[in-house]
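Re: beginner question about structure tokens

> Can someone show what the tokenized structure looks like for a real chain? I only ever see the sequence side.

Sure, here's an example I had lying around. Input first:
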Amino acid sequence: GGGRASVTNRYLRHFSVVAFTELDETTLTHIFSMLCNWWFSRCAYKEEITRYQKNLVAASLDIYKTAIRELLPTPTKMHYIFNLRDLSKVFQGIQSAASTVDDQGELLRLWTHEMLRVFHDRLG
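And the corresponding structure tokens:
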């Protein structure tokens, strides 16, 4: 439903179907907090930057959950399918530019840029 193309059982029988339940928010927070913790310690950031780690993860998850809940796919907007890979792209983008962050303002600008790159660009 929701604009997704259905796959017939006749075609589906040629593939193995793997399904798993969606991860809860506590698990997602733990996963991305560990990634950020590793990244922040690897880059040896100052305390003024590392204290934003929890806020960075919480805000990213909030926007991700909002996008899933509010931006549902339709027949004309089938590209509105967001998954965990989109959220991981945000953190990968931030980590790839780690050497350019010197203060919390730059971290916020980088995070905003990555969120817009991943979520907003898909809307256009």
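Each token stands for a local structural state, so reading them left to right follows the chain. Residues 104-123 form the longest helix (20 residues).
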